[in-house]
Design brief:
4 domains, 7-stranded mixed sheet, mainly beta, single chain, Rossmann fold, about 700 residues, 6 helices, elongated
């Protein structure tokens, strides 16, 4: 008997797995997603490995699609990302470079690989790198529908070689095949240089003579197998060679030829538009549009220590109208998701705050001095600043819900504090009734101009909403007054006040800007940005909102010469997470093939165990026997002898709530027969049903067919 095969060494990673429960028994089929992984013995004959690959292919352990809606995952969440800053700013939980210390699902382990000169363990780790990703508000782009997260080529994944890798050994006849788990998906690597990688992109399938496999709607049937070649769809392909059939390339990758029973021979085929493809740094990642890729390969000195292979986000998304490579700005609850659904950066939300409105408008009112009953100045033009509660505004020693600002030219002052150059006088609503008549505008303080038409910035009052305290300041330059509200971050909302130019003996405060009931340039500035003609509300980086309730936005407020400022009771922050091991709203099949020695990678999954206890320690543990239980001892433990196999369901085998399915024969040919029976399960009687304790015994006939009985 002749077996032709290749050696394979794989490194596994955490992937998105679908759990299973031991409920009502149903016939096992690929659509069930009942099992997450297949495990074979590291010391087993390679036919067990090929059987494991065959089961994996049958179950459809290939990639899937993802979306930007994520659930679960492990990683870091920063609860207080300041608006207008990077999500990885100094001191944040989300760091510029994140490893398994931040995201437990990232790899930090050894890659075992024989380069043809001997097997070596190479230290590798994965990282996620955060670059230019910022939290934006409508101050950055008025068309944003809320707080948003940008991405200016700012999200990357890296598979880092901590030790130099002998890349010249890749593909050498004496070397193991090299498999790298990139973004949670295992890729066979045919070649790699400092800035390129050659990846097998075809689908692998293990077929017996007469079996078929469909790719892109085209069916390929293994007609025959011999020692150094195969026949597919009546086309002969030599071992290790490929041929294009019906527009798809088919490669005879590995052959298992049984000279005694040729009809039981099998072969692994690689089938795809390309068997492999070489990518350079900056090329589109697998599955991306070649001309407009969202993700591209990021490869840097890959064969040297600290070199890496990875992917990076390839477009700039920084405003509401951006739509690049099918992606767009992310709002609360949305994510930038790495390929294969590997990890995501998500704008989780904003901190909870309560808002109170402050209104700035203009009126003509009577003004009173601090205590007299009579009107001091009748029907004067004033700025009115009002709040919702009676203690929100403080001027001098008075707490109130409303203050009034009036320009007193020289000689018209309310109380005997006349000033040569004029003054801005401040009044408050006497809601406490300290004076008669009550609820009138009572004089409290003034800010004297220091020269003709000039007043350096002066504080005249404060607004206190919860923990937010804002200064109300005035400035006069060239006879024009600016009213400023300064937030705790020292950012201003400025209002240009129009009216008669302020002078020593003249001047009024009547409107916003130069034109009444019309928005002019520079009427309203937020953090230095003119927002006067914006038709949307504007939020600054503290979380203060201008014109939230106006359908015409800030421009509507300016047109009305009445501005509403919504002030939070504390600073508003964004909440951002970077998580791995996420799940998305579209199922991603990311299951893997493992050896028994890699238990940490599969013990918490639902697994199919291929091969007996003699060569698979996982099978031994599941069956409750010692590792290395062979021959007569195996028969004594399982009642499986020459020409027979067992398929057994074991609940809670390695992890509570997880299931193992043992598929083992007395000899490797019997294991192959068990695998064949399993794969054609839905057409068999009895059918394999996944329920704890279900056991199926099979006897292999001369032609390779099986007779199977079920016991509970």
């Amino acid at each position: 008997m002749k077996n032709n095969f290749k050696k394979i060494t794989a490194i596994a990673a955490g992937a998105l797995m679908v759990g299973m429960t031991m409920g009502n028994a149903v016939a096992l089929s690929p659509s069930d997603n009942a099992f997450d992984a297949v495990v074979y013995g590291a010391q087993a004959d390679n036919s067990d490995q090929m059987s494991a690959e065959s089961i994996a292919s049958w179950l459809g352990f290939n990639g899937g699609t993802t979306s930007t809606t994520t659930v679960g995952g492990e990683g870091e969440t920063e609860e207080e990302v300041v608006f207008g800053t990077q999500i990885d700013a100094s001191g944040y939980e989300v760091e510029t470079t994140m490893t398994d210390a931040n995201i437990p699902t990232l790899l930090d382990e050894k890659l075992s690989w024989d380069d043809g000169l001997g097997s070596t363990d190479y230290d590798i780790h994965e990282s996620i790198v955060i670059g230019d990703m910022e939290i934006l508000t409508s101050l950055d782009d008025e068309d944003l529908e809320g707080v948003a997260m940008s991405n200016n080529m700012g999200l990357s994944y890296r598979y880092v070689f901590d030790d130099a890798l002998n890349c010249t050994g890749i593909g050498h006849t004496a070397a193991d095949d090299l498999y790298l788990t990139i973004l949670g998906k295992s890729y066979e690597i045919e070649d790699m240089t400092a800035t390129t990688i050659t990846v097998v992109t075809s689908e692998d399938t293990l077929l017996s003579v007469g079996e078929s496999y469909t790719v892109d709607g085209k069916t390929f049937t293994l007609d025959d197998v011999w020692s150094d070649g195969i026949m597919v769809n009546a086309e002969v392909i030599d071992d290790g060679q490929s041929k294009k059939i019906d527009g798809i390339r088919v490669k005879a990758d590995s052959i298992i030829y049984h000279s005694d029973t040729p009809e039981t021979s099998r072969a692994i085929l690689k089938i795809g538009t390309d068997i492999s493809k070489t990518y350079s740094d900056g090329d589109e990642y697998i599955g991306e549009d070649e001309d407009d890729p969202l993700w591209v390969w990021d490869i840097s000195t890959a064969c040297t220590a600290a070199g890496y292979v990875g992917v990076t986000y390839n477009v700039n998304i920084n405003d509401a109208d951006d739509s690049e490579a099918g992606d767009s700005i992310k709002y609360v609850g949305e994510s930038y998701v790495l390929p294969e659904g590997f990890a995501a950066a998500t704008l989780e939300g904003t901190t909870d705050v309560d808002y109170e409105d402050i209104t700035i408008e203009f009126a003509d009112i009577d003004l009173y001095n601090s205590s007299d009953n009579a009107v001091a100045n009748e029907d004067e033009k004033v700025i009115v600043i009002s709040a919702s509660t009676t203690s929100s505004i403080t001027v001098g020693g008075e707490e109130t819900d409303k203050i009034y600002l009036w320009y007193a030219e020289n000689g018209s002052e309310t109380e005997s504090y006349g000033n040569t150059y004029g003054a801005v006088e401040v009044f408050y609503r006497d809601h406490d009734g300290d004076n008669t008549p009550t609820n009138k505008a009572r004089y409290e303080m003034n800010a004297n101009l220091t020269a003709t038409q000039t007043l350096a910035r002066a504080n005249v009052a404060t607004v206190e909403i919860g923990d937010t305290v804002m200064d109300i300041d005035v400035t006069v330059a060239s006879g024009v007054m600016t009213l400023s509200l300064e937030d705790p971050d020292d950012d201003d909302i400025n209002f240009t006040i129009g009216g008669t130019t302020l002078a020593d003996e003249a001047g009024t405060l009547e409107k916003l800007g130069t034109t009444a009931e019309d928005a002019d340039a520079n009427d309203i500035l937020v953090s230095g940005t003119d927002v006067s003609t914006k038709d949307k509300s504007i939020m600054n980086d503290y979380g203060i909102i201008v014109a939230e309730d106006d359908s015409s936005g800030v421009e509507g407020n300016a047109d009305a010469d009445k501005v509403i400022i919504s002030i939070p009771d504390e600073k508003v922050y964004a909440q951002v997470s970077v998580l791995g091991g996420i799940s998305t709203d579209t199922t991603t099949s990311g299951s893997m093939i493992f050896t028994d020695s890699d238990k940490s990678s599969w013990a918490n999954k639902n697994v199919i165990l291929v091969g007996g206890s003699c060569i698979n320690t996982a099978t031994a543990e599941a069956l409750g026997v010692s590792a290395g239980t062979c021959d007569a001892a195996f028969t004594g433990a399982t009642n499986v002898g020459t020409g027979q196999y067992i398929i057994k369901v074991v609940g809670d085998a390695f992890t509570t709530g997880k299931t193992a399915l043992v598929v083992a024969g007395y000899e490797k040919e019997n294991t192959e027969a068990a695998v064949s029976y399993l794969k054609s399960n839905v057409n068999r009687d009895p059918m394999i049903e996944v329920a704890d304790g279900n056991t199926y015994f099979g006897t292999t006939g001369v032609s390779g067919t099986s007779t199977v009985t079920k016991t509970a």
